[in-house]
Specification:
With 220 residues, this protein is of the alpha+beta class. The protein has 3 domains: 7-79, Arc Repressor Mutant, subunit A (Orthogonal Bundle); 84-151, Winged helix-like DNA-binding domain superfamily/Winged helix DNA-binding domain (Arc Repressor Mutant, subunit A); 165-209. The chain has helices at 7-17, 23-30, 34-44, 84-93, 101-108, 113-121, 141-151, 165-177, 183-194, 200-209, and strands at 21-22, 46-48, 56-59, 70-73, 76-79, 99-100, 126-130, 133-137. A hairpin with a 7-residue loop joins strand 2 and strand 3 (56-59). It is globular. The N and C termini lie far apart (73 Å).
């Protein structure tokens, strides 16, 4: 009589059907407790998302990571470096001139301003204000000194800095459809409709440098 497939074999088959699962979905599909599912995942290897509060899982051999060690699948972000904080730390350390919140948001496809501000206050990262925006730097003394020197030579943002051509078109479409939307609301709509994370500051800069006039929201 053939032996029934092991839990890890069944787990792998689930991921062959769908690349990303939440833990409670796996527990329900397998008929095991959450603690057991975590053990099975550890046995076969997995990555946990740095977006959506880390609630998504994928098998270790599923991601096709880019040069920054990032992989995005249907709006879910995974990183070779682990958590959102660890990933930001890696990106900042690997940048000769540090990175702005807008640049990090574009790379991560996920808003990170709140995390940056919070962990800067906690001493995790240094920052320097240049051309009206903060650039976040490592606190490692030798590398920090090099990044500060390089940051001073970073050219001023071009009109489309922080926005790809496609993203700029989506911004303009939202502006034409509803001129009264705030920059924050436009950023939220792009995230919801196109799974694109854009900092409101990048949209505001785009409007300013293209001399676009925002219509103030109507009063109620």
């Amino acid at each position: 009589m053939p032996q029934p497939p092991s839990p890890t074999t069944r787990l792998e088959k689930l991921f062959h059907r769908r690349k990303c699962w939440m833990l409670d979905q796996l527990a329900q599909a397998l008929g095991y407790a959450l603690i057991s599912v975590r053990r099975f995942l550890k046995q076969i290897g997995y990555f946990r998302s740095y977006t959506q509060n880390g609630k998504w899982y994928t098998l270790r051999d599923s991601p096709d990571f880019d040069r920054d060690g990032l992989w995005h699948y249907r709006g879910i972000g995974f990183s070779q470096h682990g958590t959102l904080t660890a990933t930001i730390d890696h990106l900042i350390r690997g940048s000769p001139a540090g990175l702005s919140a807008g640049e990090l948001t574009q790379k991560l496809q996920h808003p990170c301003q709140a995390v940056l501000s919070q962990l800067h206050k906690a001493g995790r990262w240094d920052r320097v204000r240049l051309a009206g925006q903060f650039r976040y730097l490592t606190t490692d003394p030798p590398l920090n000194r090099q990044q500060r020197e390089q940051a001073a030579w970073v050219p001023r943002s071009s009109p489309l800095a922080g926005l790809s051509t496609q993203t700029a078109l989506w911004v303009l479409v939202e502006y034409i459809k509803q001129p009264g939307l705030s920059f924050e609301q436009i950023a939220t709509r792009l995230q919801e409709q196109h799974l694109v994370a854009v900092a409101p500051q990048s949209i505001e800069r785009f409007f300013r440098e293209h001399d676009l006039k925002k219509t103030p929201p109507a009063s109620h």
